[in-house]
Amino acid sequence: MNYIKDRNSERRLSVGDGSVAYSRRQTVGGRLRWNLLLSALPLFVLAMGDVRGADVWEDATGPLLSRLTNSGPKQAWPGGCSGVVADRMTGMVTIKVVGMGLWRSSNQGEHWQRIDGSTISGRDETGWATSVDQNKPSRIASFSLDGLAGMTTDGNRWKSFANLGRNWDFGSVDWAAAEPRTIIAAKHETSPPGEIEVSQDGGVTWKKQSVYLNGNRDRISMVGALGGATLVYANGDGIHRSQDAGGSWTKVSPVNPQTRVPVLFGGVHYLGGTNGLIVSKDLGATWQEQGAAVNIWQGPFFGRDEKEMLVVGKEGAFVTRNGGAAWKAVAAVKPKAGGFLFTPNWFGCYAWDPVGNVLYVSSMGNPVYKLKL
Question: Closest Cα partner for 170 from 146, 184, 186?
Answer without folding.
Answer: 186
